[in-house]
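Lab notes, practical 5.
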Amino acid sequence: MQVVKEHKKIVYKTKEIVMGRKILIVGGVAGGASTAARLRRQSEEDKIIMFEMGPHVSFSNCSLPYLLSGTIEQADDLVLMNPELFLKQYNIEARVNQKVVSLDRTAKTVQIKNMKTDELYEEHYDKLVLSPGAYPIIPKMEGLDQIPYFGVRNVVDIDKLHRFVKDLDEKKVTVIGGGFIGIEVAENLKEAGFEVTLIEAMDQILRPFDYDMVQILHKELHDHGIQLILSDKVEKFSKNQVHLASGKVIDTRAVVMAIGVAPETKLAVEAGLTIGSTGAIFTDKNYRTDDPDIYAVGDAIEVYHQMSQMQTKLPLAGPALKQARIVADHINGKLTVNKGYIGSSAIRVFDYNGASTGLNEGMIKALGLKIPYQVARIILSDKVGIMPDANPMHVKLLFDSITGKVLGAQAIGKGDVTKRIDVIATAMKFNATVTDLKDLELSYAPPFSTGKDLVNYAGYVGENLLNHAYKQIPVTEIRTLVEEGALFIDVRETYEYEYGHIKGAINIPLSTLRDRIDEIPKDKNVYLHCRTGQRSYNAVLALQNLGYNNVYNVAGSFLGLSFYEYFNDVTTKREPIVTAYNFY
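Output from the prediction step:
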């Protein structure tokens, strides 16, 4: 009997240690909430407690700015799950307004502060998951205390901003920072009827896009009445004013700080966990820290970038959700696979949509990557041209100039850019080349796409460049060439040329090219363009077949050039290199 009791005791203890663990999760938004839900799906015996320092768990972080325009009607609509529902549906204890303030790795305990009562208490853990997120960077600056300023991190933040600006007599708001949050806040404030100034210290917004591509979005912000100020830093504040390094003074009644975010690492640092080279928490492939019983996910950690082969910070919801699954699986002894990330993202800017994945030229240069690459730049209709809602879509594809491996892509247009970038991102996960993109079989109907989709076209152009079928130059080089007196031939029809053209360009329509071949010299470089680059590509090949080896196609052609030049022309008052722009 005693042996039986002893045996039962041993069985009970084993079950408590292996199957009845106590798992604590710090942070109750994307990474933390998803980890908790996945853990519960794998075990009914574990006790799971999730701590969130704010009043809400599982809210739609990425949707926060849309409260400002009324796209999302009430702040409560941003909350996807409440603690009561978490407990009923998942048997997960979600404790809101509870901040984990310290961590004792030796005792395996955390100390928690009740944010409403200031009470401190302690909880023991068998496994601990850190998902504290990131916080908005708000630098200490002169005069900041003299002006109402806001960060955007959670539902409380956006609701506070929304309530404040709604009651302003003068509806002037300044947004500092041109990242995703800054752009979305600026757009939604403008949609709500505010006079918005957007200040970015760098020479462009949205670093996932290259400078030449993002000019489309610069123009879109400008056209919708947002005062976009680039390459200028905020130096100080005074009552109702923002003072810039250039000497400009912006009149405003509120400031939104969207400079960027920093990983919330305080708890990890004080506990002696390793911080990586990026300043975020270091983890292994299973998102386990250097403490075998502590994991970390989400915006607070650094991850492996598959294309750059470097550690990076990737504060996006998608990666956090994937990390959550891997953590829960590893805690429960399941096989996990971590191939790293390529960094896919998307944004809407008024009437335009943008999406990107992988590397861009700016990243390659900033990181000092020694990658030989080429660029396929195309502008094509996003669906059959006779469809009433067809629009041009701009696609930029980077690929290895030796192997043809796809390195990254960007797409901007009024249509479904995410479809194209998602296809390319999927292909990249399988180490696709430009030839693979050319060969993809994609669904087609006139309301959705063209028979050969833009992704296929990007593959065709990339393969042609890889095989040195012709030479090209980007629109970024046209201004310098025009100022140097280079020879440009516009192969559009005469009526198109007369509507607007590069100053000094000669109009030889493709339809008359073979009859006017004597007008084209062979002893100097000749740059050919049309509206988007297709007709001029055919002209270049025709000339090459006639013995010309001095001809270049302008990638993006006149439409790409118009978008590239316009914003800087109108905001700096410089002399245009075109007689008129064409954006259609």
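Observations recorded by the TA: The longest helix spans residues 2-18. The CA atoms of residues 562 and 581 lie 5 Å apart.
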